[in-house]
Predict the 3D structure of the following.
Amino acid sequence: MLFTSSAFVAFMAIVLILYRVFPQRHRWFVLLVASMTFYGFAGPSFLFYITATIVCTYICTTRIRLLRNARDNAVADTVDKTARKAIRAKAKAACKRWFVACLLVTLGLLAIAKYTDFVIGNANSLLGLIGSGRRFGFMHLALPMGISFYTFQTVGYIIDVYREKTTPLTNPFKLALFVSFFPQVIQGPISRFDDLSQTLYSGTPVNRHGFTRAAQRILIGFFKKLVIADRLWPALLVLIEAPDEFRGAFYLFSILLYAIILFADFTGGLDITIGIAEIFGIRLAENFNRPFYSRSTQEYWQRWHITMYTWFRDYVFYPVSVGKSMLRFSKFSRRFFGDGIGKRLPVHITLLWTWFLTGFWHGATWNFVAWGLANGIVIMVSLELAPLYERFHKVFPSLGEKKFYRIFQIFRTFWLMNMIRSFDIYPGVMNAFRLMLSVITEFDLSGFISRNISELTLPISDYVSAGIGLLVLFWLSWLGRGGIDFRDKWATFAWPVRYGVVGAILFTVLILGAYGHGYDARQFIYNQF
Amino acid sequence: MYMRWVKIFSSIIAFVLVFFVVQRLLVPKYATVVLEGGLIREYYSSNFDHNVVFIGDCEVYANFSPITLWDEFGITSFLRGSPQQLIWQSYYLFHDTLRFETPDVVVFNVLAMQYNEPQYEPYNRLTLDGMRWSRAKFSAISASRLYDESWLSYFLPFFRYKDRWRDISGEDFRYFFRSPRVSINGFMIRSDVVPAGFIPAPLPRANFQFGDTAYYYLDRMVQLAAHNDINLVLVKAPTLYPHWHAQWDEQMVDFAQRNNLLYINFLEYIEAMGLDFDTDTFNAGLHLNVFGAEKLARFFGEILLEHFDLPDRRNESDTAAAWNNKSELYHRIIERQQAEISTYGRIINFLIN
Amino acid sequence: MKILTTSVFLLIAVAILAACGSPATEPEIVPNQQDETEDYISAYDAITYNQNTSDYDEPGSYDDNEADAAHTLAFGFTLIYNSVTIQMDQDMAYLLTLLGEPLGIFEAPSCAFDGIDRIFGFPGIQIHTYPDGDLDRVHTISFLDDSITTSEGITLGNSLDDVLAAYGSNYEQDTNMFTFTIDRTTLSFFIEDDMVTGIIYGLIMY
C-alpha cells in the first residue's frame, strides 16, 4: 500500500477513527492490528517473516528475563561469594546462548530472504572460474517489505536486552507493535526501544494543534516525494539506462539528479512517516539534519540517515573495536607494525568492516558493498590525513572561518558523497569507476549543452516544476536553520499568511505532483530494503 | 472560539473556490485541439425536441447532416456521437436522452460492435466528460473505466487534467465561463476535401464473432427502445476504412431480422447515393465531408419517411424559425470554410460562431 | 617496510573488491518484479522499468543496417521481400530506401487524436507501422496473394500440414488462426478448408 495511494488515505481514516474511539490504554492494540494489516497488504506470505522474527525475539528475550530473575533470586539466597559468582557465570552463559540463538534466527531470516540469490550467484561465478559446468538455480525469493529495517530494529532491542540496558517486554503483542509499527516499517527510522517505547504504548490523544503540525509535516513529505523525486525520476532513468552514451558531463548531471531525487524521496518519506506517528502521539527519531550542508564526510554521516549510522556505530563499530578479538589483534599489530600504524590499523579495519556491513545491508550486490567500502575508505583516508589538515590550518588559521572555504567544503563533500552513490545506480563496480573517470577524460560540456537535456529526458516544464519544488525546500531549510522546526516558524506567521502558505504548498502538490493518470506510482526508494 | 470557526470556514471556502477555479482553467476547452471533446455536452443546450436521435462513434457526427434532414424533410434530429463511442456508452447515452425527450427514432451506427472491452482512456473522457451527472453516467463510467482510471478523476476532473498546467493558453481564459460551440446539432462541419486513394486490404481475423458484451448492450438497446415505443434503426455508415467485414454484416442482418429491426448497410448504396470519394470525403475515405453527409442524409431521409411516420415540421412556426436559423448558420459556416480553404489552403476556424 | 607492506595489502584489497561486481550477479529480487530476466538497471526500479528503451538510431542515419538491427530484433520471424530482409519493429523510412516507392500509403488516424498508424502497400504485401516518436516502425506484415512466400517457403494456398512441417507444432490456436511466436514476433496462418488463406507477421507490443 503506497503512502501516496487513495487506499492508504482510506486506511488511515479508519485507523484514526478507531484510535479515537478505543479507550486510551488499548489504543496501542489498534496500531498493532493496523500495522499487521498494512504489512499484509504488501503480501500475506510476508507476514510469516515478521511474525517469526517477533515470536523468536519474544521467546528468547523472555527466557533471558526468566534466567536473570532466577539468577537474582538464587544470588539473593546465597551468601557464598564463589557460589554467587558461579551462579552469575552460569546465568550469563545461558543468556548468551539464547541471545546468540535469537540473533541467528532473526538475522538468518534476513539472510535467507535477502542474500540467498547473492550467494548462489557468486557460487555460480566461482564454479565458472574453476571451469565447472555445474550451476545452482536461483531461488527468486520475494523480499519482504522493510525486512532490513525491522530486523535491525529488533536486533537493537535484543542487544539492549542482553546488555541489560532495556527490560524485555512481557507482552508479546507490544513487542509485535514495536517491530511492525506501520509508518516506519517501510523505510525507518530505525528506532531504539527505550526511545520509542516512551510514546508508542501511551495512546496519547492528539490534540488539534498536534494534528495540525503533523498534517503540515505530512504535506511537506508528499511535496518532496511527488513534486521533486517522482517528477525527476524518469529523467534519471534515461541517463542511467545508457551509460555508454551518457558520460562525462551527463554523468555529473545524473549524479546531481540522483542526489536530489534520493534526498527528496527519502526525507519526504520520513516526513510522512514521522507526521503519521505524530498524529498518534508517537515520537520517532529524526533521520536527517540538513545533510547537504555538511563540510566533511564524518559530518555528513551524522546528518544523513542518522539512525542507521548510529545503529552501526553502537551495535557494530564500538562492540567490535572494544571486543576481545580486536584487542588481541591490536596488540599483534602494534607488535608487528609498530605503534604508529599498529594503533590505527585496528580502527581502520573495524571501520571498513562496519562500512562493509552497511553496504551489504543496503543491498545484496557487490555494488552496494563497493559503496559501503568507498565510504569507509574515504573516512579512513580523511582520518589518516587529519594531522596534515591540522598542520595546514595552523599555517592558515583564519581560512577555516572564511565563507568561501566553507562553501568549498560543502561543495566538495556534496560531490564526493554523491559520486560514491554511482554504485547505487550504475550496474557493475568497474562501470561506476569508469564513469567517475569519464568526468576527467570525457567531460565534453559543449556536447552536454548541444544535446538538449530537456529533449533527451523530460520537458523543460518538468524541470521548472521540480525547480519550484527545490526553491520551496531551500526556503524551508533556510527557515529551519539553527535547528528550528519550520512548523514553529510558520506558527509565528499571521493566520492568513500561514493558511496561504499551506494552501499554496497543497496546490503545488495537487497540480505539480507526479501522480494520477499517466504516472506509475512509485514506492519509496528505501522501501526496497 | 468564534474566530477559530471563522478561520476554518473562510479557509475551506477559499480552498474550494480556488480549487474549482483552477479546475475550470485546467479542463480542456476543445476550442482548437480535439474539438470532438465538445460534442456530447452540446446536446444539453438543445431544446430536446428531436424526432430522430443518432448515437454512435465518429461515423455518426461526421456523416449525417441534420440540416439536410430538416431542409428537405422537415425532420428534426440530433447526433449524439463522439470519437470511438463504445456500445455501452451509446446505450447509456440513449438512456440519458430519455431523461429529456422521447424521440420517434433512434439510429445506432453498428461499427462499435467490434469492441467488446474498454479501449482507450482519452476516448472515454471525450464521451463521458460531456455527459451530465445521472445514473446513466455512473453506469457508463463503470462499464468504460480502464484499470488506471479513478472515479475521483471523473467527479473532480482536476485530477485528470492537472498536467495541463503546461498547456494553459489564452483559450482556457477566453472559454472560462462559456464553452466553445463545435457542432450544429452534433454534426461537425467539414467542407474540405481529401480524396480517397490507396485503401488497404483488410487483415484476416481469427474470429469475426461479435463479443457477448457487445450483444448484451445491443439487446438492452432493443429493449429500451421497445419499452419506450421508439423505433431503433441500425446503420453502417458508408466509409471505406476501417473495414466492415462481410461476416460482421451477416451478424447484423441476422440480428435485425430476429428483432424485427431495420438495418441499413450504407456501403451497399454508395452508388445509389451518388457518393464520390474523390469529392465527398475530408480524410481519404474515413469520413464523409459535408457534401457527402448531405447526400447520405438525403438518402436516409427518404428511408426514414418510408418506414416511419415522421412529421414534416417545417410548418410548425417556432420549430421552423429555430431550424431555419440553424440552417442559415450551417450554410454560412460552409461558406466561411470554403473561403478559408481558397485563401489558406485549409480550414482555420472549425468552431461554430 | 611495514608501511609499504600495509599499503600494498590495502591496495590489493581495494583492487580485488573493485574488480568484483559482474553481470552474473542476479538483480535484487523485489516484490512485484515483472520479469527477472530483464537487464539489470537498478535495484530500485523493478516495479516501473519501461521495456521500451530509447532509440539508438540517429534520425536520418540509414547507412548502417547493423545499427538499426541492433535496436530492432536481431532474432524472431523476418520476411525476405525482393531480397530485402524486413524485420519487425524496423524503421520504415530506412526500409523504404531499400524497397522503393510503395504502391500507396494509407494513414489511419484515430477518430480525434494525432499519432497515426500507416499502411504501406507493395505488390503482394502490406506493411503496417506504428508511430514511435519521429519514426514509423513495422508492426504487421500481411500477405495479399501467393506471389510472396515466408522465409520458410509457405504461401497462400499451402496446407496446414505444410505449415506444421515448416514451423513445427509449438503454436497457439485461436479458431482458425495458428500462431507461432519467437520472442516479440509472431507469424500467424489462417486456415480455411485445410488451406492457408491469410498470413500475418506481427509484433508483440508492450
Summary: Chain A has a mean pLDDT of 89. The two ends of chain A are 16 Å apart (CA to CA). The CA atoms of residues 71 and 90 of chain A lie 9 Å apart.
